[in-house]
């Protein structure tokens, strides 16, 4: 097989996606993103390994610089794998420089605001009980959407902690707040029983048809109940811990970040908010 032969491109991509899923342990959402980026590259680019024309086409389509950089990384990673598998000549991969983009600080909810939102959530119907458990857990432990979707009942531990399988199939055990624990227990005792059927297996959070709750549905729930995105809850969790005195290394472990520089952004957020509070509070601010 040869990557430059369109007849084999789809077959090679399928093999790569299987490698990402089974060997690298990437989530279904991440694998789908890689698939879309690679196939789009083949569609828009005539010369495999070249990126200058591809960059121009993406810019004309008004993609954000951060999105373009992600697509370039996806394609380059794939091409390097293909060269190791002898599907492609590595010397054909042209150098490409990432586009400079402004780093946007994540949206953070204030502690009073998020606490009021969670306290005032309806907590009566099956769906309300489930949704409150999800939101309490996400703010309690800073979980990613995929981590919430893939939780199993046995992941909840008696010592007020929960075992999470994160990126790259790496496990970590996280503490949960008393309120999150109470909300989850009520859901397991009342809500999940109403939703469960033969499709449920042992997944913790279920949809209205009884199957595993999808990433998309969790995003919809977060937006519906608290008017924000799931990652905003994760950012809020991390920032509030740092503002409360938690060590950066501790927050890194809780978030499941391999690279400490990924966690550094939350220190910038805290400093920005510190300056804002200073200006608001100081008589001559």
What is the compact description of this entry?
The chain has helices at about 5-20, 30-45, 50-60, 65-85, 110-120, 125-140, 145-150, 180-195, 215-225, 230-245, 250-255, 260-265, 265-280, and strands at about 155, 160-165, 170-175. It has about 280 residues and is mainly α.
Describe how the helices and strands are arranged.
Layout: H1 6-22, H2 28-44, H3 52-60, H4 65-84, H5 111-119, H6 126-141, H7 145-149, E1 156-157, E2 161-165, E3 171-175, H8 178-195, H9 215-226, H10 230-243, H11 248-255, H12 260-263, H13 265-281
Antiparallel strand pairs: 1-2, 2-3
- Number of helices in the DSSP assignment: 13
Number of domains: 2
* Strands ordered across the widest β-sheet: 1-2-3
Unreliable stretches (pLDDT < 50, length at least 5) are none
Categorize the overall geometry.
Answer: globular
Can you tell me the CATH class of the largest domain? Mainly Alpha
Give the helix level as a range of percent: 55-70%
Name of the CATH homologous superfamily of the largest domain: Intergrase catalytic core
- Could you name the CATH topology of the largest domain? hpI Integrase, Chain A
Task: Give me the secondary-structure category.
Answer: mainly alpha
From the 3D coordinates, which CATH architecture of the largest domain would you assign? Answer: Orthogonal Bundle
Mean pLDDT over the residues: 86
- Rg over CA atoms, rounded to whole Å, is 22 Å
Distance between the termini: 67 Å
Q: How would you sum up the major sheet?
A: 3 strands, antiparallel
Please provide the count of β strands.
3
| SSE series | HHHHHHHEEEHHHHHH
Strand content: under 5%
């Amino acid at each position: 097989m040869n990557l430059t032969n369109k007849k084999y491109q789809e077959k090679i991509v399928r093999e790569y996606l299987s490698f990402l899923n089974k060997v690298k342990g990437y989530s279904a959402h991440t694998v789908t993103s890689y698939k879309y980026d690679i196939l789009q590259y083949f569609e828009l680019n005539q010369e495999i390994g070249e990126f200058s024309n591809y960059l121009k086409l993406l810019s004309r389509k008004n993609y954000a610089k951060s999105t373009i950089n992600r697509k370039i990384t996806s394609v380059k990673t794939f091409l390097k794998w293909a060269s190791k598998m002898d599907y492609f000549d590595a010397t054909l991969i042209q150098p490409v420089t990432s586009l400079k983009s402004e780093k946007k600080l994540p949206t953070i909810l204030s502690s009073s605001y998020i606490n009021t939102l969670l306290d005032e959530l309806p907590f009566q119907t099956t769906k309300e009980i489930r949704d409150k458990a999800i939101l309490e857990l996400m703010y309690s432990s800073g979980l990613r959407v995929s981590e919430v979707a893939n939780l199993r009942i046995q992941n909840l531990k008696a010592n007020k902690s929960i075992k999470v399988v994160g990126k790259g199939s790496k496990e970590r055990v996280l503490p949960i707040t008393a309120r999150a624990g109470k909300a989850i227990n009520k859901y397991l005792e009342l809500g999940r029983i109403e939703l469960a059927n033969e499709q449920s297996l042992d997944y913790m959070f279920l949809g209205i048809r009884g199957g595993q709750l999808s990433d998309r549905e969790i995003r919809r729930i977060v937006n519906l109940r608290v008017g924000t995105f799931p990652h905003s809850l994760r950012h809020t969790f991390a920032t509030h811990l740092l503002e409360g005195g938690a060590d950066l290394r501790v927050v890194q472990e809780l978030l499941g970040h391999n690279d400490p520089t990924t966690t550094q952004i939350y220190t910038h957020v805290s400093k920005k908010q510190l300056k804002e509070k200073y200006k608001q509070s100081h008589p001559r601010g």
